[in-house]
Amino acid sequence: MRYLMLLLAEFAAAARADDAKPLDPSDCPPGVQKALRCANEDCDSQDGGAVTLVCVQ
Predict the structure, then answer these.
(1) Whether pLDDT at 20 is above 70
(2) From CA 9, how far away is CA 26, in angstroms rounded?
(3) Residues 6+ apart with CB under 8 A from 17
(4) In 19-41, which positions are buried (b, 16+ CB within 10 angstroms) versus exposed (e)?
């Protein structure tokens, strides 16, 4: 799970680009949806914010 969080953090860092667009999790494959749910649960359990997946082109 820590590797997933690291991967999501890298996506978040890349998302700081001007053209970053939030993705609707329902448009993602089931595995990505599950990973986002787990990441949000982990963040919530540690009083963190919501996880957002973005697409940088």
Answers:
(1) no
(2) 20
(3) 56
(4) ebeeeebeeeeeeeeebbeebbe
Mean pLDDT over 3-31 rounds to 71
Token pair belonging to 40? 């949000």
Q: How confident is the prediction for the chain on average, in pLDDT?
A: 75
CA distances from 35 to 2, 24, 31, 43, 49 (A): 11, 14, 6, 12, 16
Residue linked to tokens 């999501």? 8
Residue 51: Cβ within 10 Å count:
21
